[in-house]
Design a protein that fits this description.
Length: 400
Amino acid sequence: MTVEIAQPAPAVQSADDTHGEATPADEAFWEEPGAPGDGDAAGSAHGIVAQGTAKDVVTQGTANDVATQSTSTDVVAQDARDFGAYVRAGGWAFALKVARSVRPGGEAAGETAKISAKDFAELAGCSPERVMRYYKAWDKAADDGLVPYFEALAPGQDVELPDSDVWHSYYISRSSAASDRGTAIAAAAEAEGIRPTKALEVAENPTALRAAILADPSTAQAARAALLDRLKEDPALQTELARDIARTDDLKKAVATETQAASRIGYVRQIVENGQVKTPAGQTIEATSELRAEAERHLSLIDELDEGEDTGEWASDAYDTVKDLVAQTVQADPELRLQERRTKFYSSLQKATKVFEELTFDDVDDLDTIYEDDMLQRLEELQQAVGMCITALRKAAPSN
């Protein structure tokens, strides 16, 4: 019975004896009742020891509960202090732990109480590369006078830390940042006023970037603006993009529409900025005050449109209005109207001449292989038309 009460005693051995050696009380406890040579006195002593041990177990259990509660409170308090330190100092709080514990280069193991970055990483449960990123960040800050050098720090020593906002100016969280590509990305990020780590993270996750562009219009707009900026300095990308557009019917139509709108807006803008306009026949004339005022009014409406708003309808309206005013201007001036007819006729004559000059049979050895009755008929009709023009012009020619 006494032995059954004393059964919790193994917990005492496990909790109190860290070296695995039995205490005298434990040895007495594990002796079986009625062992040879002990007698009744021994058995009574065994019972007393067992009872005392059971009481000790109860007392020890209560003490352990109190100790556990106290330890939990200490752990929570330590977490809170660590959190507050990190909020105030950011990564500097962890960099200090590395700086004061990791042996700086040039110091042998026997010269300092500090350990190597590899050993520190093993204790921390992380990679030596991560430890060295914190190490290098501290080293750069020390060169700038923000923190003490490694040699001036001892294990466990606390120093005043820089503000958390400057941490990302020194810490590079990704090894890719050390490459030429990473360096260029980091430099571009700094120029844009953002943290290099953010840009590097995006660059390392192109699939995530694609998903964001596909799902979010604002992200797509930002990507479009960035792509346009890059196109200015990347001829190869210009060619690739142009090829992609040419191979996509919808994009070709969109480009043609936007090109037409841009051309019409340019026509109107030319009137406002230079005070000149081209007639339908192609001659350049001075724009009237009425024409310039109307062109300026339409242009101001176009310039006030939002960046993403469609300008096609506005461009067409402005172009048609200005074109009508130009035609009215030409018709109102007899001399100008005559010059317009002359210019139009001469322009058509030049185009016809160029086309006919390209129509040659010099490189055709066997005309019978390409002969069609329609060809001969069309040439004969053309010959008659040309003859009529020549006759009309000869009659109009001044007599000598």
